[in-house]
């Protein structure tokens, strides 16, 4: 066993985070159901149990909905045509390079087409997701917990572990298996990537569309705040699908193991917590029966402008870095997925050669600060929350606050990994690009 340094506060931190992560989506669901997204305070423990049973009991229909969705995505991943890319060499597996068949975009389009047909023809009304939100959430939580336990023991049993510590709880939380792959219909599928790209974001989008359709069913209009949150999520999720070929070389794939943290947050946390704003707008529209009252059109216009600008920086900066790295490795093949934003590929950019062999981009957005995409992501998260301005409340702001904390923590983890990897070159890089998030400020 190697002496892997513990992150997230070690074993105690892992236990705390697992409890907190279970609490958050259920609390939000109860707050939406019993206080229109305001703070939820049951008067007694019995009341809490009754509320929980009424709203979040797992049902067979929720089970079929959730597992049907996951199974469909698994089958799409196995059969749809994709764009093949190689991942980074895996040092713990003799520098083996896995191949990824990036067909998330085809899955995304096909899922949207099928569900549109099903919804319009009445075969499957998408509003069922918002009607059974709590039950589907409970099924997702149970499935992700069971899957985490299974993956943990399976990887140990089959000797596919890496970077283990002496704490089983911490290892269960962080994961023990770096590249969880299965063969489905003859196709090698990376479960970590499937969960990260499709199961989490695609389900989130369906939950949001479900809330918008419910609002439309009730009032025959979709309010501007709802249109805003739909647009924001559509842009974000489409970007994850259209740029899937850049994901195998990201930190989640080449470094993070597939443990409880990733499994739970991809299968349950992201879709059900990040859908809060759309549900908040929906429940308050239904409560007041006035879906448009209190909307500040000036704020909505400002939010759209900030969103498009932040999205542009987020998309183009990541494309610049990933394409630069692909060109360096000789693996770059232009892919005409929609939309291709201007300045997403740099011609002869400046970069820093380092002693460990890797190169660091110091051109494009990357000459202004070291994490332009994090800053843009924080801006987008804040816009999501502000879309709930019609009905003032605290809980819509949980997401940007949570995201800010998570991304700053991710930043510190990344910096400490890069300092170890690049040594003196990291200091040189930080001298050339002195600001982390906002040029001239921090
Ligand atoms: P980054 O895209 O920041 O990648 C970090 C790695 O990139 C470093 O470890 C280093 O790896 C390499 N790198 C750093 N600087 C440079 C440079 N100047 N030139 C070339 N390579 C460089 O990683 P993340 O995975 O954290 O973020 C990706 C996106 O995902 C972000 O937009 C983030 O906001 C988003 N995200 C969203 C979440 C959500 O829940 N909504 C959750 C997590 C992330 P090396 O040099 O070793 O290759």
TrEMBL record:
TM spans (from-to): 12-30, 63-83, 104-127, 133-155, 193-213, 219-237, 258-276, 296-314
Compartment annotation: Endoplasmic reticulum membrane
GO molecular function: Delta24(24-1) sterol reductase activity
Cross-referenced InterPro entries: ERG24_DHCR-like, Sterol_reductase_CS
GO cellular component term of the entry, any: endoplasmic reticulum membrane
Gene3D superfamilies (alphabetical): 1.20.120.1630
PROSITE patterns reported in the protein's UniProt record: STEROL_REDUCT_2 (PS01018)
Membrane topology recorded in Swiss-Prot or TrEMBL: Multi-pass membrane protein
Pathway field: Steroid metabolism; ergosterol biosynthesis; Steroid biosynthesis; cholesterol biosynthesis
Keywords: Cholesterol biosynthesis, Cholesterol metabolism, Endoplasmic reticulum, Lipid biosynthesis, Lipid metabolism, Membrane, NADP, Oxidoreductase, Steroid biosynthesis, Steroid metabolism, Sterol biosynthesis, Sterol metabolism, Transmembrane, Transmembrane helix
Main localization category: endoplasmic reticulum
EC number: 1.3.1.71
Top class in the EC scheme: oxidoreductase
Biological processes per GO annotation: cholesterol biosynthetic process
Catalytic activity: ergosterol + NADP(+) = ergosta-5,7,22,24(28)-tetraen-3beta-ol + NADPH + H(+)
Family: Belongs to the ERG4/ERG24 family.
Record-given protein name: Delta(24(24(1)))-sterol reductase
Organism: Rotaria sordida
């Amino acid at each position: 066993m190697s002496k892997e340094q513990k992150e997230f506060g070690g074993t105690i931190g892992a236990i705390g985070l697992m409890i907190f992560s279970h609490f958050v989506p259920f609390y939000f669901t109860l707050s939406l159901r019993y206080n229109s997204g305001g703070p939820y305070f049951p008067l007694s423990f019995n009341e809490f149990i009754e509320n929980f049973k009424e709203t979040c009991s797992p049902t067979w229909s929720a089970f079929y909905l959730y597992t049907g969705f996951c199974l469909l995505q698994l089958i799409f991943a196995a059969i749809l045509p994709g764009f093949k890319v190689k991942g980074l060499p895996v040092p713990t597996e003799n520098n083996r390079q896995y191949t990824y068949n990036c067909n998330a975009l085809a899955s995304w389009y096909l899922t949207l087409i099928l569900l549109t047909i099903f919804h319009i023809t009445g075969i499957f009304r998408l509003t069922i997701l918002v009607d059974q939100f709590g039950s589907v959430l409970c099924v997702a939580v149970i499935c992700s917990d069971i899957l985490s336990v299974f993956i943990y023991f399976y990887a140990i049993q089959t000797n596919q572990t890496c970077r283990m510590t002496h704490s089983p709880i911490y290892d269960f939380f962080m994961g023990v298996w770096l590249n969880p792959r299965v063969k489905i219909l003859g196709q090698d599928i990376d479960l970590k990537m499937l969960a990260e790209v499709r199961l989490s974001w695609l389900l989130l989008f369906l939950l949001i569309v479900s809330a918008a359709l419910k609002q439309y069913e009730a009032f025959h209009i979709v309010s501007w705040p709802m249109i805003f949150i739909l647009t924001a999520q559509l842009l974000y999720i489409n970007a994850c699908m259209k740029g899937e070929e850049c994901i195998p070389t990201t930190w989640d794939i080449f470094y993070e193991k597939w443990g409880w943290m990733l499994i739970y947050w991809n299968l349950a946390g992201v879709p059900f917590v990040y859908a809060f704003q759309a549900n908040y707008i929906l429940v308050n529209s239904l409560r007041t029966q006035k879906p448009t009252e209190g909307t500040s059109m000036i704020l909505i216009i400002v939010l759209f402008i900030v969103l498009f600008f932040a999205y542009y920086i987020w998309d183009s900066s990541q494309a610049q870095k990933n394409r630069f790295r692909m060109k360096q490795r000789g693996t770059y093949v232009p892919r005409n997925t929609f939309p291709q934003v201007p300045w997403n590929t740099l011609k002869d950019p400046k970069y820093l050669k380092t002693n460990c062999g890797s190169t660091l981009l110091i051109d494009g957005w990357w000459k202004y600060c070291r994490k332009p995409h994090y800053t843009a992501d924080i801006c987008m998260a804040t816009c999501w929350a502000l879309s709930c301005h019609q009905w003032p409340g605290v809980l819509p702001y949980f997401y940007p606050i949570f995201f800010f904390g998570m991304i700053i923590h991710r930043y510190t983890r990344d910096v400490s990994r890069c300092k170890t990897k690049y040594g003196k070159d990291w200091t040189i890089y930080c001298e050339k690009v002195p600001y982390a998030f906002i040029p001239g400020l921090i």
